[in-house]
Amino acid sequence: MAIHRLYGELAASLVRATTERCEPEEPRTRVGAKLDGAGGLSAYEGALLILHELGLATPDHKLAIDGDRVAQFITKRSRDGQVKLPPIDDVLEPWLSVADQQGHLSLKRLPFVPHDEIRPVMDALVALDYARPAGNAFIWTDKIGRAMQMAGDWDENNLSRQELEERNVDLEMRKALACIPEDVRLAALRGSRIDVVKALAARWVDGVWLPDTADEAPWWRLTAVGAEAARLVELVQGPGHLLTREVN
To answer: Residue 159, Cβ neighbours under 10 Å: how many?
Structure first.
């Protein structure tokens, strides 16, 4: 059954992602290779925990079997049913988090082209309708929703939190653009992101631009408006926008 193959491909992918990347010896995924928790990042810690549950990690966090045998080994375990494996969503959740951390996939509900390293997993997911092919790309279905929710990436309605946040930022910055002060517009046209960040942090408050005499924003506010600044620069520099003019 396709579910057995999915267990195997997910396990093999997690092994490749968590095997110590600093070791010079090859092959990297040999028996005894150190499994890396990636400095305490929760995504990799979750992956390491699942590898223990799958019987692929030793108590001292080393690989129990050769990496090139993992997919076959776990597929057989799943098919035989003699060893209880964790629910498939419990395996999918850390895999999604790690693959996202590595930039190998997108968690949005839009078509994306995955990294070649995870294509075997994507093919296995397609076989079970967790994803569907779209040319050379893939698009998630609602079936992946529970794992996405467990990872915190989709909400209870299976909407991408990242897409929702980007939409909110876009709407907010369109409001800011409609009444943007000239000095901020010119900074955005020059591509001076730091000046735009400072302006937004100190002067864009409750949907209104304050005068440039406003007090300087605290550091935490500066770090909170990076996405907004990037979007505002894009909008100001966008082709054909009425407010986009040559800098004198």
So the answer is: 15
Residue 215 has a CB neighbour count (10 Å cut-off) of 8
pLDDT band at 47 (very low <50, low <70, confident <90, very high): very high
Task: Answer whether 92's CB lies under 8 Å from 118's CB.
Answer: no
d(CA 173, CA 18): 39
The neighbouring-strand residues paired with 208 are: 205
User: Mean pLDDT over residues 189-204, rounded?
Assistant: 95
pLDDT of the residue at 38: 55
Residue listed under structure tokens 């467990």? 150
Q: 3-state DSSP helix/strand/coil percent for the chain, to nearest 5?
A: 55, 10, 35
- Beta-strand relationship, 204-205 and 208-209: antiparallel
Token pair of 66 as six digits: 């050769």
- How many helical (H) and strand (E) elements, i.e. helices and strands, does the chain have? 11, 4
What one-letter code names the amino acid at 169? V
Residues 99/118, Cβ–Cβ less than 8 Å: yes
**Token pair of 20, please?**
């110590």
Q: Residue by residue, what is the 3-state secondary structure of 135-160? A: CCEEEECHHHHHHHHHCCCECCCCCE
Distance CA 140, CA 128 (A): 11
What's residue 180's pLDDT? 97
Give yes or no for a contact between 68 and 96, defined as CB atoms under 8 angstroms apart.
Answer: no
Query: Averaged over 66-92, what is the pLDDT?
Result: 93
How far, in Å, CA of 122 to CA of 115, rounded?
Answer: 10
Which H or E run includes 131?
strand 131-134
The candidate with the shortest Cα–Cα distance to 91, out of 126, 54, 66, 45, is: 54
